[in-house]
Amino acid sequence: MNEQAKQNEAVNAQNNMEKKVETVEYRSSAGQGQEERNVQVTHQPHSKTSGGVLSGAAAAVASTLQSAKDAISEK
To answer: Disulfide check for 6: which of 13, 22, 66, 73 has CB 3.0–4.6 Å away?
Structure first.
């Protein structure tokens, strides 16, 4: 995090904790100078991302692989 960043934590309307960080974004394009602008980034932790989404995806992959194995073995 850069030295200019400011952050605060609050509870949002859905009663979830969120962290807002005010910082500076730097962009540059070929042939252009560097552009600087103030931005605010909001971090919202989600309980589903701490394994729930990944375990669901893993189960879907396992099911797909098993279906493929079954289809191949019936040839």
So the answer is: 22
Check: pTM over 0.85? Answer yes or no: no
The token pair at 5 is: 């960043």
| Helix segments in the chain, DSSP class H | 52-73
d(CA 46, CA 41): 16
Paired strand residues for 26 = 36
Q: Record the tokens describing residue 31, joined without a space.
A: 């042939």
How, if at all, do strands 34-43 and 17-28 pair? antiparallel
37 forms beta bridges with 25
Task: Return the higher-pLDDT residue of 8 and 23.
Answer: 23
